[in-house]
Amino acid sequence: MFAGVNCVLYGLCMFVLLRGAKTAPLRFMLVVMSTILFLLCTVHVGASLRQLLEAFVYAPTDVPYYSITYWLDLAAAPRVLKGFLFGTLVLAQDFILIWRLYVVFMCNWRVIILPIILAAGCVGSAYAASAVSTIPKDGLYSSTLTSLVISAWAFGFTLNASVTGSIVVRLWRLGRTMVLGATSSNRFASSIYIVIESGAISAIANAIMLAMFASNNPASLFVMDVAAQVTALTPLLIVVQVGHIGQDRISTTDLSKMVPKAQDVITFRAGQDSLPDTTQFRWASSASSTEV
Questions:
Q1: Helix spans in 53-76 (H)
Q2: For residue 213, how many C-alpha atoms fall within 13 Å in the half-sphere facing its CB?
Q3: How far apart are the first and last CA of the chain?
Q4: Three-state DSSP class for 202?
Q5: Rg for the chain (alpha carbons), in Å?
Q6: Range of the domain at 90
Q7: Residue range 197-224: mean pLDDT, rounded
Q8: What pLDDT is attached to residue 244?
Q9: Whether 166 contacts 111, CB under 8 Å
Q10: Residues 228-269: tens digit of each pLDDT
Q11: CB 3.0-4.6 Å disulfide test: which of 23, 66, 122, 181 passes with 156?
Q12: What is the tally of structural domains in the chain?
């Protein structure tokens, strides 16, 4: 199901990012990363299909319980491939998340040092867990594998929560200082909700996967397949949602009703801490809001 959703979201992302004649480095980055995420999750689905065929279609009839044994075999080639693909998907998602933090803080490299360390710990633990799972003598719930999975989840959850929280706080503070009309509402409210929503989806999926793994439930292997698709879904969803915000504009035929919108200039490049000059804000346009 999530694989089909990702196909639709990827098509919408390309429509949002490539429409219009204007090109921008931020758009190019998102086109490349969205394509990489989509290709990785598509290969992951292909590996799952191969695994299903080998377990239930090409299964030898003279081996009892072959399908169950094969499906739970962590050393099987499709399972190993999916493990490394999941780690790579997490790496790509973390890269996008850290890149947003870097841009929101006006390309201040100091703010991304700790997130990069957390991302390295998360991906390193995930790759190590995939490698350890191929050792025949170690079972599905060996102490080494369990420690690596918990370590990867701890690094990933800390990274997701800290970076998402930092972006939200940054946007909230900037929204409090911006006075773009008579209203006193936070101009970055929609963007804040989008960031929180995407972070929550990823955190919930990984929490469910860890809970099932910690309870020694073999269904955690199936949940990992879903979590891999969700990992690709959340960045694509942000682009589509911001593109939808760009469509919700006051008609340009009545200039007296036009107001600057913070979503037009967020592009995950929120500006400076000081009170901005409102004359520098671009007027509402459907194209400008897509530079996430």
A1: 66-71
A2: 26
A3: 26
A4: helix
A5: 22
A6: 2-290
A7: 82
A8: 56
A9: yes
A10: 888 888 888 888 876 655 544 433 333 333 333 334 433 444
A11: 122
A12: 1
Burial of 187-206, coded b for 16+ CB within 10 Å and e otherwise, reads bbebbbebbeebbeebbebb
Tokens of 246: 């760009």
What percent of the residues of the chain are helix, what percent strand, and what percent coil, each to the nearest 5?
70, 0, 30
What mean pLDDT is reported for the chain? 77
Q: CA 249, CA 67: separation in Å to the nearest integer?
A: 55
Task: Report residue 215 as tokens.
Answer: 């309870």
Supply 18's token pair.
Answer: 């490539």
pLDDT per residue over 278-292, tens digit each? 333 333 333 334 444
Contact 54, 70 (CB under 8 A): yes
pLDDT score of 224: 84
pLDDT at 91: 92
Closest CA to 76 of 54, 92, 94: 54
Confidence band, pLDDT 50/70/90 cuts, at residue 189 = confident
DSSP symbols for 204-262: HHHHHHHHHHHTT-TTHHHHHHHHHHHHHHHHHHHHHHHHHHHH----TT-GGG----H
In this predicted model, what pLDDT tens digit does every residue of 94-153 receive, in sequence order? 998 898 889 888 888 899 999 999 999 999 999 998 888 887 665 666 778 888 888 998
Kindly state the tokens that stand for 167.
């972006």
Per the rule left: phi > 0, alpha: psi between -120 and 50, beta: everything else, 20 is left
Cα–Cα distance, 235 to 160 (Å, whole number)? 13
Residue 23 has a CB neighbour count (10 Å cut-off) of 11
Residue of 276, 281, 267, 273 lying closest to 194 (CA atoms): 267
Cα distances (angstroms) measured from residue 191 to each of 37, 64, 148: 22, 54, 34
